[in-house]
Amino acid sequence: MKVEFSDIEDAYLKIRKSIRNKKNLYRFEKNYYSNCNILVDKINNGNYIYSNYHIFTIIEKKMRLIMSSTLEDKIVNHVICNKILLPLDKYLIDSNCATRIGRGTSYARKLLDKYLVKIKNKSNTFYILKFDFSKYFYNINHKVLLKKLSKYLNNEDLLLIKDILNTTNYDYINNTIDKLRINTFYNKDTGLPIGNYTSQFLAVFYLNDLDHYIKEKLGCKYYIRYMDDGIIIDSNKERLKDILKILETIIKDEYLLEFNNKTKIYKSTEGFTFLGINYKVKNNKIYRKIISKTRKRLVKKNIKYYLKYEKL
What's the DSSP call for residue 187? Predict the structure, then answer.
């Protein structure tokens, strides 16, 4: 990957809107052209070195770990994502819905509504397999990820991704996590930096082959994945049981992952929740309602929501 001044500038202009520490902006802009050109030279010469993360926690439903990068690291992450990773979006399936342009939460919800109506027209009773990965971001294996990326990227670009992934291997990260009393640590060559721009796409991409397998080999028409949450809808419960067994083997052997205890098969009449909305079939009709936690977040953002069960 070769970058130009305009690549650095475009990334910076996007980043600066979300930077809270204005001192960092002032420091960078004080010698703006020089700092941009330094980044161009370091990236093109292959000698850019990432700084240590500022690691802290926030409470958002539950305590979450954040690994904040320096301004320069953020810029480099954006450039790499824009020039190397985002072009891979065309290889992702349509129902892989998370942090993608035009395919975010709203798109996933609308897609699920469409799937539910379609299967309801074919069968009054149907079943929903919901699966959730255990500590997904922390358990993504670097070697597996790089092998999957190697089908699309050249060695030079792979090394740039590898440099980012290697930043989770330093001892100071687990030492800091231990002091913060969070019972989740990084194993060597495993896990994505929490908060990196590149991490979002890499997490979306990691299970891309699995997505294609589910849709194309297993023939699951009604399948959606939102990062580490997946849902498959079918009129045959036994088929979903078989699919679950197949997926458990694949994710363990090929991806070095496992499902957590939230993974379960639901009957349409008992209801299920996906992406903050509870769905239920009653009197052969499908109803949906936003759960209270999601409603509170939407109220803060002044976004319209369903006050009570609304029929599809």
Answer: P
Residue with tokens 């976004």: 303
Q: Which helix (H) or strand (E) holds 243?
A: helix 237-253
Q: For tokens 């590898």, what's the residue?
A: 162
Q: Is residue 168 left, alpha or beta, with left meaning phi > 0 and alpha meaning psi from -120 to 50? A: alpha
Q: Beta-strand (E) ranges in 47-126?
A: 54-60, 62-68
- Whole-model pTM: value is 0.89
25/21 Cα distance (integer angstroms): 7
The values of phi and psi at residue 56, to 5°, are -155, 180
**What values do phi and psi take at 186, rounded to 5?**
-95, 125
| Partners of 59 in the β-ladder | 63
What gap in Å lies between CA 192 and CA 267, rounded to an integer?
Answer: 35
What is the mean pLDDT of each successive set of 10 residues along the chain, which is 312 residues long? 94 88 88 96 94 87 84 96 96 93 90 92 90 95 98 96 96 93 90 93 97 97 96 96 98 97 93 89 84 59 52 61
